[in-house]
Write a structure and sequence with these properties.
263 residues; alpha/beta; Rossmann fold; ProC C-terminal domain-like fold; 2 domains; 8-stranded mixed sheet; 8 strands
Amino acid sequence: MAHTPFKSVGMVGLGKMGGAMAKALVSQGTKVFAFDPNLKETSVEGVTLVSTLETLASEAGIIVIAVKPNLVEPVLAEFQKPAIFVSIAAGISYSQLVAKTPQGSTCVRVMPNLPLVANRGAMGYFCEDQAVAHVERLFYGLGDSFRVTKESLMDAVTGLSGSGPAYVLTFLQAMAEGGLQEGLSYEESLGLAMETIEGTLVYFRQLRRKDQNLHPMEVRNWVTSPGGTTIHGLDALERGGFSTAVRDAIRRATERSKELGKG
């Protein structure tokens, strides 16, 4: 089924995420109107800046709220007529969105992540059934979207994929530093680390297309020979608490998302 982009979309905020979404939507043929009081002009070609939220609402029936969490409710309170409101702010609950939007509005809570900038985002979202088609249409081409069945799981989405790019980049830097420590140049180490991470994921994704039940540890065992280099490296990782540290990072980020939602 062919993708039919929205005719027009309103963006409140043109930061990293808002700007990336705006750029992708413009490339699909959508007319994007944006309100951002911090900008006098925008570097995103094809985006029309407007001076008021009232103007934004008159130009677009679907509004993306891409501002800091503490600004979401004040911004929503400014709208006077119902629309489809999509919030990408961490910790702002669905009930908060419904309470602050005009009666008759449709609300969606979404947590995207940084790879959305490269059209490889992993987006979790929560909404009522009638809004699902709007979400899938809005985020088409920006990555993969996953609908969660309970809103409480949005905090876990935030802790995993929302914060996840920072974990991956930390791992990337650690690998590069490891190669540097052993005598490789930093550029050599970083290049090898990037290709290793990306190549492994591409390969594993290909394998999973053939066998959706394939477990990462099964593939890991393919390259872990008895008494070889890999098992010694894995032993060092686990003695350093690697797996536990990653799980703890996701748990703590999830807790923080819950804290943000409480104000």
